[in-house]
Amino acid sequence: MTVLVSVWGAAPGVGKSTLCAGLSRSLAGAGLRVDHFREEEILSRPQFAAVAEEFGATGAVGPETLVAATARFGESVPAHGDDVVIADALVPFVPTLPAMGHGEEAIDAFMTDLASVLAPVRPVVVFLDGDTGTALSRAGEREGPKWLDWNVGVDRADELTSGEVLGALTQGLKPWLAPWLPYTPGSPTPLTRPDGNAPATPPGAVRPCPPWT
Description:
Blueprint: E1 3-9, H1 16-29, E2 34-37, H2 49-58, H3 63-80, E3 84-88, H4 104-117, E4 122-128, H5 132-143, H6 162-177
Parallel strand pairs: 1-3, 1-4, 2-3
């Protein structure tokens, strides 16, 4: 049975893409047949065509679409005859499912279905921990300084209640949501962000985090 090594990280820039590339070269050099599934290929692999189409059209992807695409991928793996698949976050949309509007029940069901459709392979999850500040700085150097505008951090989230995390996130999102929030004296004007720039998206639109971050 093909082994699926899915590498995740605490933050963009923590080194998972570098690790995947190095591990792929190492295993291939040892004589194994390796499929290196790069993170950006989620938008180009034929099994995930419906995911790319739905994300491009709406900025979000339904759990059913993700499960169906992952099932197609899982079914295709044995036919390729690879010993190992090294996946740089096989389903990079998972961390953004809440931002796409999916609730806990839908996400729990998705994770259960995901485990089922991966039955044709033997999955192993590798998680790279590390300092998120350092990792994000590294990612910002790679992607450009404006890339950091897509990120909102909540410090010590593991020490906070869910309500406190929600409150901290709401505060962090205010620069982007200010144009559509009720104006209160002393707050930024509803037509500009605190940096003086207009929001990047119109009222009613949601700017999703890129799927490969």
